[in-house]
Amino acid sequence: MTSALMSPSTSRLTGKCVLVTGATGGIGLAISELLHASGATVYVTDIDQERAESLAGALGERARFVRLDVTEEAGWAAVAAAMEDAGDRLTTLVNCAGAALRRSIADTTLDDFNRIMELNLVGTFLGIRLAARRMVDHGAIVNISSVNGVLPTAGLGAYVASKSAVSALTRVAALELADRGITVNAVCPGSIDTAITDSADFADTDWDAYVRTIPVGRRGAPVEVAQAVLYLASDESRYVTGTDLVIDGGIAAGRFAGRPRSTQ
Ligand SMILES: NC(=O)c1ccc[n+]([C@@H]2O[C@H](COP(=O)([O-])OP(=O)(O)OC[C@H]3O[C@@H](n4cnc5c(N)ncnc54)[C@H](O)[C@@H]3O)[C@@H](O)[C@H]2O)c1
C-alpha cells in the first residue's frame, strides 16, 4: 500500500477506465485532461458531440468519445454498450454535467426548476445507478456537487436544491456500495471561473465584490477541482467514502467579513 501511495503521478490511474460527463465544460475538461494524464482510459462524454469528439482527439490514445445527454436513460445504456463493445470495464465515474440558474424562488418557473433538477440530480442518479449495476468492484464514483450543496445562497434555489440532493444521494450510494469496495464521494467546488456563470442570469454580478467574500481572495481554477477528483478516483482514497470534499477557498468555513487588522 505504501508503495502505491508513492507511485509517480503519471501512473496514479493506470488501468482505470473513467467516464466523465459534461467532459468538455470548464471543470469537466480539466478533469478529463488530468485523469488522462494520470494514466486512465477516459470516456469523454458530453451533450455537445462536436466538442467531445474534438477533446478525445486532442487527448489521443486512451481517450474515447460518446455523445451523452445525462438526462436520457437510453443514452446511459448506449454508453454502457459502447464500453462493452470496446472491451472496456468501467472503474470510475465522474458525474460532472450540470447547469446553474440564478433566480429568486418567486421568479422561478416550474419548467426552470424541473430543468435544473433533471440535469443536476436526475442525470447524476442515472449515472450512479449505471455504476451500481455495471461497475467493477473496487471502483470510484465522484459526483460534482457544489459548495451550495452544503451552504445555500439566496437566488440559487433550484440549484441549491439539486446540489444538496446530489450530496445526499452520494451518501446513500456510499452506504449501499461500500461492501463492494466502490467509494462514492462528492466534490463541492466554490466559485470556479467557467462558462457556467456566462448566462444572462449572472450578468449583473459584481465579481470584485464577490471575490472579497472569499477568504482565499480569488475564484478557483478548474484544475484545482480536478486535483480533488484525481485523489478520489485514485487508490489513495480507498478508505474515503460518503464525503463532501469542499474546494472553495474557505467560503464554507464560516461567515467572512474581512480580516481584523493585525497588530503583530
Ligand atoms: N463553475 C463553478 O463555479 C461551479 C461551482 C460549483 C459546482 N459546479 C459544478 O461543476 C459542474 C461543471 O460545471 P462547469 O463550471 O464546468 O460548467 P460548464 O458550463 O463549463 O460545463 C457544463 C458542461 O455540461 C454539459 N452539459 C450540459 N447539459 C448536459 C446534458 N444534458 N448532458 C450532458 N452534458 C451536458 C455542457 O455541454 C458543458 O460541457 C456542474 O455540475 C456545476 O454545477 C461549478
TrEMBL record:
<dbReference type="InterPro" id="IPR057326">
    <property type="entry name" value="KR_dom"/>
</dbReference>
<protein>
    <submittedName>
        <fullName>SDR family NAD(P)-dependent oxidoreductase</fullName>
        <ecNumber>1.1.1.-</ecNumber>
    </submittedName>
</protein>
<dbReference type="InterPro" id="IPR002347">
    <property type="entry name" value="SDR_fam"/>
</dbReference>
<feature type="domain" description="Ketoreductase">
    <location>
        <begin position="16"/>
        <end position="190"/>
    </location>
</feature>
<dbReference type="Pfam" id="PF13561">
    <property type="entry name" value="adh_short_C2"/>
</dbReference>
<keyword id="KW-0560">Oxidoreductase</keyword>
<comment type="similarity">
    <text>Belongs to the short-chain dehydrogenases/reductases (SDR) family.</text>
</comment>
<dbReference type="InterPro" id="IPR036291">
    <property type="entry name" value="NAD(P)-bd_dom_sf"/>
</dbReference>
<dbReference type="GO" id="GO:0016491">
    <property type="term" value="F:oxidoreductase activity"/>
</dbReference>
<dbReference type="InterPro" id="IPR020904">
    <property type="entry name" value="Sc_DH/Rdtase_CS"/>
</dbReference>
